[in-house]
Amino acid sequence: MIKREFRYIELAGKLRTEILSGYLKPGQFLLPEKELCQVYDISRNSLRQALELLTNEGLLVKMVGRGTMVTKDLDIGKHESNIINIICPQHSSYVNKALPILIEMFKEQYPNVEFRLFGMGTNNEDLLQDLASFGVHADIVIMNDGDMQRLPLDKFLTLEDIVPEQGMTQDKLFQIFGHPTGQYAIPLTYSPVFLACNPHLFETSGLHIPQISWNWEQFVEAAKSITRDSNGDGLNDIYGFGLSSSLYRWPVLARKHSYRMRQEPSGMLNTEGLAGFLDFIQTLLYRDGVSPVMAVNDWELLAQLFDEGRLGMFLTTTLTTGMNNATFPVTVIPLPTSPQAVKGNLAIANGMMIPKTSGNTALAKQFARLAIHIDYQRRMAAEAKFLSVYTQVNEEVWTERERSALGVTEENSEPFYFMNEMLPDPILESALVHELSKFWAGFETPDEATVRLTDKLRQALELDPVLTEDSV
Q1: 452 or 149: whose pLDDT is higher?
Q2: Handedness of CA 335, 432, 185, 128 (dihedral sign)
Q3: DSSP category for residue 168
Q4: Is 121 left (phi over 0), alpha (psi -120 to 50) or beta?
Q5: What pLDDT does residue 58 have?
C-alpha cells in the first residue's frame, strides 16, 4: 500500500528524465491524462500529483483546454544534467568500435544526454567503490562474462524487465549473465574464438587458404612457410601464427588437438592429455619458431601485429579483431583438427550491468533496452563487424562462409562453452594462469609444468591424491 501511495514520485522521475534528456521536447504536449494512466498503469490521482510536482519545478505548464505541455522556454542548464557514466574495467574493442554507434542512436532520441566513459584497468570487487571515491557514480558497467562472475552482484540491479525482441543466437547468452538470484546483465554481443588469417601472406607464401578441415601437420607447414625475415636483417619479422597464453585462447587449440580442459566431479582439473598438448605448443614456439615468443603473454600486442600484417594466422574473436582492417581483408578459416579432437568451442561475451548506486536508473535502463534493440544490433553487426545476439541479424550481415567458419550456421553448428562452464571453480582458472607462467616463458618442460600444476591444485583444493586419481 505504501509503495502505491508514492507511485506518483516514481512517475515524476520518469517524466523528468524524458524532459531533461530531450526525449520530450519544449513545447511538446503530453498524452491526455486517460492515456497516460493506461501507459504507466497509474491512478488519475497519482498522475495529477506527478504532473503538479513537475509543474512546480517549472518543467511542465498546464494549458487550459489543451492539456499539459513541456515548458517552451525551458532552460536545461538550470536543472540537473543528464549524464550517463559508463565504466569499462578492461580494454574493450566493443567499447571502441560498437559503443559509439549505440551512443549516437541514443542521442537521436535523447539529445540532451551526455556520456562519460571511464576505463578502470581493474576488475576487482572494489571497482564501484574506487570510482565513487572520485565523486563518480557508475550508471552502466560493460563487462565480459568472466569478469561478471567476480563482481559483488548484490550491488547491481536485476534486469528481468529488459527482454530481447526475438530468439537469440545462443539461448545460454542470457543464462551466462544470469544468477540464481536474478538477471544482472544483458548480453551485448558474443563471439566464439576463431582462427583469422591474412590472405595476402598466404598468397605471397604460395599457399591456398584452407576452405575445409585441415590437420595439424598442414597447419604447422603453413606457419613455417609464412615465417620469414622480410627485410634481410637476419631476424624474422613475419610469423605464421600468433600464439597467446591467454586462458581465453589456447584451450580452443587444446580441444582441437587432443586435450579437453574441464573440471572433474572431484573439483580437480582434468590433466589427461595436457602434457602432450603443451609439448606441441612448446614446439611451435621454441623449436619451430613460427610465433613471436616475446608477444605470447600480450594478446593486445599480437592483435596489433596481426593488424600490421606481420602474422599469417591469429587466434582471436570478433570482440578484439572487429574483422575490419585497412590493408587486408580479415578472413575466417577453419581450425585444424586431429582424430583426437574434442567437439565444442570456447566463447566470450560482453554484457551490460546497472549499479544500484546509479544516479539515473530510468535513463540507464533505456540505454540498456536500446543495446538489444534489433535496429542497433543490425548497425553494430554491419558497421563494427560484431556478432549480433540475434540469428536473423547475423544471417543478414555475415556471409554463409563466415558464419560456417565461426560455427554459427545450422549446418556447421558447434556447441559453445563459456569459461565458467568449463571451470566453475575460479581456483582452477587462477592456477592455470599462474602455474603455467614458467612453461610459457620456456623454463619448464610440459611434464614438469603438469606435475607442479597438479600438486598446487591439490593443495589449494585440499584433495586426497588417491581419491583424485580414482575420480579421474
Answers
A1: 452
A2: negative
A3: B
A4: left
A5: 86
